[in-house]
Amino acid sequence: xxxxxxxxxxxxxxxxxxxxxxxxxxxxxxxxxxxxxxxxxxxxxxxxxxxxxxxxxxxxxxxxxxxxxxxxxxxxxxxxxxxxxxxxxxxxxxxxxxxxxxxxxxxxxxxxxxxxxxxxxxxxxxxxxxxxxxxxxxxxxxxxxxxxxxxxxxxxxxxxxxxxxxxxxxxxxxxxxxxxxxxxxxxxxxxxxxxxxxxxxxxxxxxxxxxxxxxxxxxxxxxxxxxxxxxxxxxxxxxxxxxxxxxxxxxxxxxxxxxxxxxxxxxxxxxxxxxxxxxxxxxxxxxxxxxxxxxxxxxxxxxxxxxxxxxxxxxxxxxxxxxxxxxxxxxxxxxxxxxxxxxxxxxxxxxxxxxxxxxxxxxxxxxxxxxxxxxxxxxxxxxxxxx
Length: 387
What we know:
Elements: E1 4-9, H1 13-23, E2 32-37, H2 47-54, E3 58-59, H3 61-64, E4 71-74, E5 87-89, E6 99-100, E7 107-108, H4 113-116, E8 125-128, H5 133-140, E9 148-150, H6 154-162, H7 166-172, E10 180-186, H8 197-207, E11 213-219, H9 221-227, H10 229-241, E12 245-247, H11 254-258, E13 262-265, H12 269-273, E14 281-283, H13 296-303, H14 313-323, H15 330-334, H16 343-355
Parallel strand pairs: 1-2, 1-4, 2-3, 4-5, 5-8, 8-9, 10-11, 10-13, 11-12, 13-14
Antiparallel strand pairs: 6-7
Helix pairs in contact: 9-10
């Protein structure tokens, strides 16, 4: 039988993870064949291994650009103008949080003309998470506005659907009832938490005893790709020896975030998604120049407490826990998506419209997240040295 061809364009591991949530909406449709390709990208070194773990059909980039497809999906703009297919683009993280303040590329990342109309070629559709994003789209790239569809956010919906499983995730991580989990989160770039880990890591190792606290590090895949896994693990080797869990870039970080009792974060997407969990957030860094002032990251930076370099870490964690009010973060959470719980329905409808096909006759279910494996440092016999 003839099948329509869908191309998933995977620039980086981060983009690939976002598209896996989208591609799950095409499962069990024998009318479709999904294939993958990986364009050249500065942070794309880990993509071949990522795709190999999927067991997917991978077309070399040079071959993919010579073929025709019925639909292409991308969470980043680089090179997609060379794809011969109706293209749907969508953001690779929460909302549009970061801005570039210098040079020819200045603007809000993801909403610049070069992001939305790469090579001067309009896509078939632009997926945005929130109705408020349409105003920014109109200001930054008005020619893309007629193509915009408010579809919601898949990570928001997966996390929200999985919150009732928090206790199961904590058991899977090996946490006891008496242990608290501190998750330290970093985006990428010089102003990220990782850029200041040399000051934060000694505190995590020296002030949080492993009998009462467990610590997990969630470092952006671009950090791993940019520096190399060997170098990142080398920098963090002492942390793992002292019982700090290093979540690898290929792992699904979302269930670990749900299990957290505290989140130490920055201006990246994962910290923003942390507002959904109910865990108190303290910011290790929040550079104003890099934050889109219209984004929920700006509101979070103005509201969440910041880490003090001079006060004991445990005292600060317990202080923010006592001050934390989940309802105060509701405006921030609501800015992540204006279509809560409806991403699957909206995105599937859009894809099948572009394909010119009828949708499957069943509701697209939001599947809860799988249980996380415990970090290697938490395995029996590891990480039992108290600070």
